[in-house]
Specification:
CATH architecture of the largest domain: 3-Layer(aba) Sandwich
Radius of gyration: 62 Å
Number of strands: 15
Structural class: alpha/beta
Strand order of the largest sheet: 5-6-3-2-1-4-7
Helix content: 40-55%
Distance between the termini: 201 Å
Shape: rod-shaped
CATH class of the largest domain: Alpha Beta
Number of domains: 3
Oligomer: single chain
Order of helices and strands: HEEEHEEEEHEHEHEHEHEHHEEE
CATH superfamily of the largest domain: Response regulator
Low-confidence stretches: none
Mean pLDDT: 86
């Protein structure tokens, strides 16, 4: 145990000198930006290390003073894609200083290596792809069956963004009956990966036909969230096909790789869905056209067949009428002849009957001297037993009647 006694100033100065002697001045430090904030032209943030679960394992405060900031920003501008933002992995240079009055260590940032950030992004992207390949997740969403007419869409993007407007404009122009459920989500910055994954889960619960995940253009760093493992897994394991429309023309994000269909812009994503729906509409219109043509041809064939049948029927009817007319004429002639014969025969029979009737006519019989005797009741007397003594008898002769009374019968 040392017996040396220090004042606070002496202790802090000794510590500062020891750090300077140990580090030899400015050093390069790798880490992730956390808690970035500005004040009076200065930029402050913490540079942190995290474990596999994302927990902070080490931290050092960083100050980018206003006098050093132009040099750093010019270097970032030359790189074109790197910004000092939350969650960005950077390699920065500066001396580790001990602020005596505040009693804390602080790295005074003087320089930055933008290439490190870009390489870190690419390295993380390759790592995520390797993990997804190992778990057979690359083609999982792409293997899902897409609805033939995917009109029910979940749109995931930032509310009131250009991406949202461009996507909706393309759908509206198609004049198809789309049903769009909008889900607002961060698409950039710290924590955006969690909001995107949550939005994807919400879309699946809504039982939509397809999910559209879109974002407008941006730098490689702006779009790094779409390389995040959390986002990639959420897309790959989605039970609904996911279409991406991420505004980059050169790079392909991990989200694009695992999506059902990747498009370069929000507009292109909407147009891809319009094309799918319009293909179904076109096939339907073509089918109806084919049906109409078949019906028209069939009607024409049947019309001609009916016309032929009508002509045949008319001809057959005329022929039949001629035959039946001839048959009727023949029958009529036969009937007329038969009627004449029958009438002649009946006339002869009638004349014979008349002659016979005349022969037995009582009047003629009476005229020949015969008479007819009847009782008073009009009964013809045929036998003597028909009369009793005292009966009144009426005898009819040719020119009248004789009334008499029976006196006796034998």
């Amino acid at each position: 145990m040392s017996d040396v006694n220090y004042t606070v100033t002496e202790l802090m100065t000794a510590t500062a000198d020891a750090i300077k002697a140990r580090l030899g001045g400015a050093v390069w430090v790798d880490g992730e930006i956390s808690g970035a904030r500005e004040s009076r032209g200065h930029l402050y943030f913490d540079l942190v290390d995290r474990d596999e679960k994302g927990a902070v394992t080490a931290k050092v405060p960083v100050a980018l003073w206003s006098r050093a900031r132009p040099k750093v920003e010019q270097k970032l501008q030359s790189a074109g894609t790197v910004r000092l933002e939350e969650g960005v992995k950077v390699r920065i240079r500066g001396p580790l200083e001990l602020w005596l009055a505040g009693g804390r260590l602080q790295l005074s940032m003087q320089d930055i290596d933008p290439v490190f950030t870009l390489e870190a992004l690419e390295s993380e992207r390759e790592r995520v792809l390797a993990v997804l390949r190992a778990e057979n997740l690359i083609d999982r969403n792409r293997s899902l069956a897409l609805a033939s007419m995917p009109l029910h869409i979940a749109l995931i993007t930032a509310d009131e963004s250009a991406a949202q407007a461009d996507f909706m404009h393309s759908l509206i122009e198609s004049r198809l009956p789309w049903r769009v459920e909008f889900i607002d989500s961060k698409v950039q910055g710290a924590g955006a990966e969690r909001t995107i994954a949550a939005a994807l889960r919400t879309a699946q619960r809504n039982k939509v036909d397809v999910i559209a995940l879109v974002r407008g253009g941006g730098s490689r760093l702006d779009l790094a969230i779409f390389d995040h493992e959390v986002v990639a897994r959420a897309i790959a394991t989605s039970s609904v096909p996911v279409f991406t429309g991420i505004g980059h023309e050169i790079d392909t994000s991990v989200a694009d790789v695992v999506a059902h269909c990747a498009n370069k812009t929000p507009t292109a994503c909407a147009e891809a869905l319009v094309d799918i729906a319009m293909e179904v509409v076109t096939r339907g219109e073509t089918a109806w056209g084919d049906i109409a043509e078949i019906v028209s041809t069939t009607l024409e064939v049947e019309r001609e067949r009916l016309a032929r049948s009508a002509r045949h029927a008319a001809l057959g009817a005329r022929t039949r009428l001629t035959v039946e007319r001839h048959r009727l004429s023949s029958t009529t002639s036969r009937l007329n002849r038969s009627l004449e014969t029958t009438m002649k025969s009946e006339k002869q029979s009638l004349e014979l009957f008349t002659a016979r009737l005349s022969a037995v006519d009582p009047v003629r019989t009476l005229a020949r001297g015969w008479s007819i005797t009847r009782t008073e009741r009009g009964t013809v007397v045929r036998r003597s037993a028909d009369v009793s003594p005292g009966d009144t008898l009426v005898t009819t002769v040719s020119d009248g009647t004789i009334t008499s009374t029976a006196t006796a019968t034998d």
